Amino acid sequence: MFDEGSGISLKELVSPLTNKKAIIIIFILGFIVFFNALFGEFVWDDKKFVVLNPQIRTLNVFWLFGNNLFNSVGFYRPLVAVYFALTHSIFNNTPFFYHFLQLLIHLINTSLLFYLFTKFLNKKISLFLAIIFLIHPMNVESVSFIASSGNLMFFLFGIGALTLSMTENINLKKSTLVFLLLLLSVLTKETGFSFFFIILASRLLFKRKHFPLFVSLGLLVSLLYIFLRLIIAGVNLEKLYFVPIASLSLWERTLNIPAIIVYYLKTFFFPAHLAIYQLWTIKSIEIYSFYLPLLAVIIFFVSIFLLGWLLRRSNKKEFYVLVLFFMWLAIGLSIHLQIFPLEMTVADRWFYFPMAGLLGILGIGIQNFKIKNKSVRTFGFIIAVILISVLGLRTMVRNTNWVNALTLYSHDLKVSDNFALQNDLGVEYLGIKKYDLAKEHFEKSVRLLPYETNLYNLAYVSSLLGDLGEAQKYYYLAMNTKKYPEEYHRIIALDISERLGAILILQNDPKTKSFIESSLKIYPKSTKLKIELAILEYKLGNHAEALAAAKQANESSPNEITQDFYKKLTNKEIIDTQIYLRFFL
After folding, report:
1. What is the pLDDT of residues 66-116, one digit of tens each?
2. CA distance 140 to 146
3. What angle do CA 139, 141, 145 make, to 5 degrees?
4. Which terminus of the chain is less hemmed in, N or C, by CB atoms within 10 Å?
5. Residue 485: how many CB atoms within 10 A of its CB?
6. How far apart are CA 155 and CA 142, in angstroms?
7. Residues contacting residue 5 through CB under 8 Å, at least 6 positions apart
8. Is residue 138 a contact partner of residue 145, using CB atoms and an 8 Å limit?
9. Each residue of 340-384: pLDDT tens digit?
10. Predicted structure pTM score
11. Based on C-alpha coordinates, what's the Rg of the chain?
12. What SS3 class is residue 583?
């Protein structure tokens, strides 16, 4: 408690507002708002990239810069691979430490953004904007989603490069640091190239000296990135499969641009409905889906141009600042407008970078809205406190959605129902052996968009529920559905063939032998198909053929099943084949 006797008042603690005090406030508020996010489990792609990823069990940096899970399907993000390998080597699969590190990076990013804002705005406005960035509910996806660590890291390196580039005297040490930070940013996420264009814009607008130097640094970063990506890792651009937005033509994707921009702006100003895996698309020109969003976008940008026109006449310096932050917002939005299709239509984490530009624009507007009346200024302060409180509470609530995958998917399906979320929720129910609920969600996923994975999952859960006829039906559908690239389809088709072989034997299907033999021609190394052929021959009474197939299976891949079955066949024991077949379902 602060009183007159203590000699310190609360006002004196924060006034005058210094950079140190502002950063302390940022860290305290950040830990308060995101404290409950620290105890969330691994969810969504966290399991794919961390928990179930054997590639991060090594700290071989050269290999991590090559072709792996992080550097594939059109993406090249080797520093994320290094980050997860290093983190896993220290903390293994304990999610708390991953969450803590992400929050720490977010706090540093916010502090650097505050410092950047102070170059153009007064400290109080800069702190207010930084706090909005810190606690905004849209940024929960960047902070609570472990697999999106790269989103925070590219911003950290990029804003570090930008801040250094804006200093007055650029010597060899500073230019080298800018180069290294830019390189780290683009090797973390391709969006890091955005900071290169922001650096060039800031030099053109404020300090044109050394402009050719920064152009050279950017080109050098680009050449090194291309060399590492194409020559070292061999990662090219790849077509996205069965992603709704990627299946549209370029013209059809442009119809989505107004709705995409409106989504980000609406969610920024009113973050009520938040969800992952947003796969909606606009396929036709209609009033509500195209014209109204287009009108809203026009009004928004006209408002910014009007502000720019007013500043151009009254304060050219702040006009240039507005131009810088407008370019920041425009560049950040443009790379997510589906000109080049992405894996989702929109994602909250993709607004992490553009949000800083939008906040800068709002800061210029606030700073030039002069209020001399003390009571009005007090009212404005109260509104700011209420806004921060509401956003903070909304973020804390959103953090609770990320506590585990089952909670997240169940909540977000109410906001954005789609085949991917339905399938993922089914997988979660499958994991806790609630097979009826799992089947219900797999069926919903298949109705929305059938593809290999959800059809396979539906077949698998049907077999667990004892309905082999339905399992057979959906395995065949999964095998004949080719949404994946050929190499991925072949992998899942092998698993399907092995499971189908067991089901056909259990059902005494007359086509069983021809199916297994034709499958073995496609997958000659499959031990499961070989042992299934041995089981089938045994059931048909062909002992010699069964023994030959069992011997071949045991020699190609000796394991407990092949060895036991071969031994019993050799000793001419009576065999309960169902015991073995259940292993293959």
Report:
1. 888 888 877 899 999 999 999 999 999 999 999 999 999 999 999 999 999
2. 11
3. 135
4. N
5. 12
6. 11
7. none
8. no
9. 999 999 999 999 999 999 999 999 999 887 666 677 778 888 899
10. 0.91
11. 29
12. helix
The pLDDT tens digits of the residues spanning 133-147 come to 999 999 999 999 999
Cα–Cα dist 454/475, whole Å:
10
What is the distance between the alpha carbons of residues 338 and 519, in angstroms, rounded to a whole number? 40
Q: How far from 60 is each of 57, 76, 141, 235, 581, CA to CA, in Å? A: 9, 17, 29, 19, 41
Query: How far apart are the C-alpha atoms of 154 and 80, rounded to whole Å?
Result: 10
Q: Between vectors from CA 118 to CA 264 and to CA 372, what angle results, nearest 5°?
A: 90
Answer for the pair 27, 107: CB distance below 8 angstroms, yes or no: yes
Residue located via tokens 């973050």? 271
Residues 6+ away with beta carbon under 8 Å from 97:
87, 90, 91
Alpha carbon separation from 257 to 241, 267, 282 (Å, rounded)? 21, 15, 9
* Nearest residue to 496 (alpha-carbon basis) of 476, 468, 473: 476
Sign of CA dihedral 44, 46, 47, 52: positive
What's the fold here for domain 410-584?
A: 1.25.40
Question: Span 164-193, mean pLDDT?
Answer: 92
Where along the chain do the CATH 1.25.40.10 domains lie?
410-584
Tokens standing for residue 423: 């399938």
Q: Measure the CA–CA gap between 258 and 528, rounded to whole angstroms.
A: 52
C-alpha distances in Å from residue 312, one per residue of 189, 200, 309, 315, 471: 35, 21, 5, 6, 69
